[in-house]
Amino acid sequence: MNLPASSHGRLGDTAARDYSRKLQLFNAFARPELRQAIATLALKPGMRVLDAGCGTGEALGWLAAEVGREGTVVGMDLATAHIAAARAVRPENAWVIQADLLTTPLAPASFDAIWSVNTFNHLHDPLAAVKAATRLLRPGGRIALGQSSLLPDMYFAWDSRLERLTNEAVRQYYRHRYQLSERGLTAVRSLVGLLRAAGLHNVTARTFMIERVSPVSAQDEHYLVEAIFQSTWGARLRPYLLKEDYEQLTRLCDPEHPDFALRRPDFHFLQSFTLVVGAVEPE
Ligand SMILES: C[S@@+](CC[C@H](N)C(=O)[O-])C[C@H]1O[C@@H](n2cnc3c(N)ncnc32)[C@H](O)[C@@H]1O
Predict the structure, then answer these.
(1) Which of 119, 100, 36, 110 is nearest to 72 (CA)?
(2) Class of domain 5-149+186-210+271-279
(3) Would the pTM of this model clear 0.70, i.e. be above it?
(4) Which of 6, 50, 56, 122 has most ligand 1 atoms within 8 Å of its beta carbon, as the pocket-test mutant?
(5) How many angstroms separate the alpha carbon of residue 277 from the centre of ligand 1?
(6) I want to staple 11 with a disulfide (CB 3.0 to 4.6 A). Which of 17, 122, 146, 274 is the partner?
(7) Which residue has the higher pLDDT, 3 or 181?
């Protein structure tokens, strides 16, 4: 595949990048809320739907269930490893192609709807990408951009101080790693304006809460420990926290420690997922 320079996204995405495991964990964790969000689109049997930046492909089956056997779902992604994972789980009426959203080989006006989760914030020029994506929609077709909040809205219900410091440490880590300004990390805030700037009509927004309290299921524990406690936090936050705060965080994140957060009776997790939908003008 001949990939243009723009394929090296603002969050480091390339064809060779692989964070399949994190995507699979998130999709298993947030499955009920993501399916609820898809249901609000009221897709009809027979529709053609594109999942732009389909990652490891979990949503392909959820979208295919809405459009039925007579419908078609296409998953498109840049990353070779994500594409391979998506092909392994795609249902019969779904196709998976490796392509850059900005230079897609798909035919104009060939989809009724586009679904895209946590993807447009990875691109250098999200507005150009929305315009490119909407050219794939038929007149009256809709684009739905989903975005989870960068950081959970609450995870240490009993300690807002440590939560604030941890959030700030994660933001600093991302700012350094991807050379971003604070504004570059506020993707949810830009969605409504983005779709309006791209000339879309009937722009609506709805936020779903991913909410869990203890005791959490084994699957939810997997996600929280591996994707958040170990991969998003962990040793990478050490430079951004005072020693005693880092040590307290480490105890709360350690399943073997008596202070482990998920065993607390007051564990209460909240993360928002916002879906913004806009339509192309009908003919
Ligand atoms: C955070 S992941 C979200 C994946 C999936 N939508 C999900 O919710 O699990 C962002 C995805 O966008 C893909 N991506 C990034 N830049 C892209 C581009 N220019 N064209 C197509 N896909 C891209 C990445 O490879 C990655 O799979």
Answers:
(1) 110
(2) alpha beta
(3) yes
(4) 122
(5) 18
(6) 122
(7) 181
